[in-house]
Amino acid sequence: MELTFWGVRGSFPVARPHARRFGGNTPCVQVAAEGSHLVIDAGTGIRRLGQRLLSQDEARDFTLLISHPHWDHIQGFPYFEPAYQPDVEISIFSIQRQEDKLETLFSGQQHVAFFPTPLEQLPSRIRFLEMEEGQPVEASGFRICTLRLNHPGVASGFRLERDGFTLAYVCDVAPSRDLLLADPRPGISQDAFRRELFENQIRLAEGADLVIYDTFFTPREYAERRHWGHSTLEDGLEICRLAAAENLFMFHHNPERSDDELAVLFEEARKMGESHGVEVHVACEGQTWNLEKGGLTPCE
């Protein structure tokens, strides 16, 4: 099983020298195993992924998980070339939404006023499937579970299990200590829901071999922008410690953060991780990792 990062920046894509080393595309992660391809989020990084898959004449059946419909997580889909192939089937999973269904939002993004090819005219077969929170589904050989996270609107994280390996994707997320940012849930107090959202992070990461976590902010930055809905490395390490997770990937990098600044933060993070019993890595666009029960190693 292999993990590849195709987009690692948050908020908006960056095409400047300061983001060349770690990459400037917005979130897109691929997990491949035995010819099946599962993709998490459709930021601008999904464009290069689509080109690679078509050039290698790989699978024609894709599973796409969308954590939430903020633009940096869906803006690459209109440029996903497999969607323009008539023999391709794309199953798009997301958490249940009471309003603003994901299919409607995707369609709106490709309205003819904004994009020349409407979603409804794509020749591929596209299915939008809603997941019930906390109820696992099977897709592309993976067992997948989704839970709500504390982020403006309706956002969720994912837990993937296959061949004894567990990966948690916890992005975008705020710490949930003192500020509820997610759309409230009827029938539960804001304080109780905020606590539930914090526990959801632990449930997603429980015993995970690998956690991909939103480390957009430094603690100082977070103090100034708590309402943005993002977290810090320290938050990620706390979740991994509480969940007994083994590896943490810094992800959803601040687009204003230079590669040099990110490299310094990563070196500090590695030392912090040692004190928490967690091995820290940094997500780098284009990098592939082998995933096996008991560990992960970078591919050459």
Describe, in plain words, how this protein is organized in 3D.
The protein is of the alpha/beta class and 300 residues long. It has a single domain (2-298), classed as 4-Layer Sandwich (Metallo-beta-lactamase, Chain A). The protein has 6 helices and 15 strands. It has helices spanning 46-55, 102-109, 190-205, 219-224, 233-243, 259-276, and strands spanning 2-7, 28-33, 36-40, 61-65, 89-95, 125-131, 137-139, 142-149, 155-162, 165-170, 210-214, 247-251, 279-282, 288-292, 295-298. The strands form 2 sheets. It has an 8-stranded mixed sheet with strand order 6-5-4-3-2-1-14-15. Helix 3 (190-205) packs across helix 5. The longest helix has 18 residues, at 259-276. It is globular, with a radius of gyration of 18 Å. The two termini are 15 Å apart. 47% of the residues are buried. The model has no long low-confidence stretch (mean pLDDT 95).
Give the arrangement of secondary structure elements.
Blueprint lengths: L1 E6 L20 E6 L2 E5 L5 H10 L5 E5 L23 E7 L6 H8 L15 E7 L5 E3 L2 E8 L5 E8 L2 E6 L19 H16 L4 E5 L4 H6 L8 H11 L3 E5 L7 H18 L2 E4 L5 E5 L2 E4 L2
Parallel strand pairs: 3-4, 4-5, 5-6, 10-11, 11-12, 12-13
Antiparallel strand pairs: 1-2, 1-14, 2-3, 7-8, 8-9, 9-10, 14-15
Helix pairs in contact: 3-5, 5-6
